Amino acid sequence: MTELKNDRFLRALMREPVDVTPVWMMRQAGRYLPEYRASRAKAGDFMGLCTNPEAACEVTLQPLERYPLDAAILFSDILTIPDAMGLGLYFETGEGPRFKKPVRTEADIRALKVVDPHKDLPYVVDAVSTIRRELNGRVPLIGFSGSPWTLATYMVEGGSSKDFRRAKTMAFNQPEVMHQLLTVLADSVIAYLNAQIEAGAQAVQIFDTWGGALSHAAYQEFSLAYMQRIVSGLIREREGRRVPVILFTKGGGQWLELLADTGADALGLDWTTDIGQARSRVGKRVALQGNMDPTMLYASPDRIRSEVGQILASYGSGSGHVFNLGHGITPEVDPAHAGAFIDAVHQLSATYHQ
């Protein structure tokens, strides 16, 4: 077991003392980096990168060569599980992910089987072990999955959606069918994340991208309950230390107390929730991750630095904060602005940890 040279990310998730607030960015390996675009062109397409463990490792490490980030995150996609279920994932230029065989009927859902990550997604497991080896203890590695509800929306809609008409109609008219789908997805996510942890992931994040599209009652029934099931089924200790679990519901700031009740170690916040208010609501039950508006990275470096300072001040002194964007970094961002953001977090946060 290689000793971690920089463990402030893991320490902050456990609300242990750190010297500065750790920072990473969702989608930090991505299209805003010219070296990523070159790697993707060489691989042929996005899935060519995802399914090649060496290529996935290469692009995972690219942002770490540029910036003093405090964590690496596995380069993959949230839709690997439905793809492994045989739905035929492909990417339409300008339109995002699509499935050749969406699930629309009870018979479609009954035909689905829980994914065996070692048999059905070996390229992800191999990528995790490859990245962990190449990191050689530089920073921790984050594994991840989409939430059951988020995966279900893509599977039922057949791709992205603005109103989730088909998925919500199934949930409201045939809740037992939707629950059957969500159960097989939750059990697949448990197996998938545990395989990532066993392969070397030192923390895991569940991306509930579309949970915020649900009503209060529907969120608890169709999203939160299944994330709770996952948290309860995960390996929580490995290599002699805690494996923290981060839950991130985009648009879910009104449900922080419910999310904290799941037993997760940290909650991700989008930029619509004030982090200081969130801290007062959850107390010492969980750490918080976030939450600068990604489009702030289009502003000047001075304005970015000012925004970082405001968020740090809102959170206040002490550990338990992992700085991040409120969602993923966007492709048109100047890499120099991302660097200014990361440097500002480290420089301005030290005073809050004395």
UniProtKB/TrEMBL annotation:
The enzyme's E.C. designation: 4.1.1.37
Catalytic class of the enzyme: lyase
Domain Uroporphyrinogen decarboxylase (URO-D): 22-31, 142-158
SUPFAM superfamilies to which the protein is assigned, alphabetical: UROD/MetE-like
Assigned keywords, A-Z: Cytoplasm, Decarboxylase, Lyase, Porphyrin biosynthesis
Binding site for substrate: 27-31, 77, 154, 209, 327
Superkingdom per UniProt: Bacteria
Compartments where found: Cytoplasm
Pathway participation: Porphyrin-containing compound metabolism; protoporphyrin-IX biosynthesis; coproporphyrinogen-III from 5-aminolevulinate: step 4/4
Stretches that traverse the bilayer: none
Catalytic activity: uroporphyrinogen III + 4 H(+) = coproporphyrinogen III + 4 CO2
Residues of the site described as Transition state stabilizer: 77
Any single biological process term in GO: protoporphyrinogen IX biosynthetic process from glutamate
GO MF annotation, one: uroporphyrinogen decarboxylase activity
Cellular compartments per GO CC: cytosol
Complexes and interactors: Homodimer.
Role according to the record: Catalyzes the decarboxylation of four acetate groups of uroporphyrinogen-III to yield coproporphyrinogen-III.
Family: Belongs to the uroporphyrinogen decarboxylase family.
Protein name, per record: Uroporphyrinogen decarboxylase
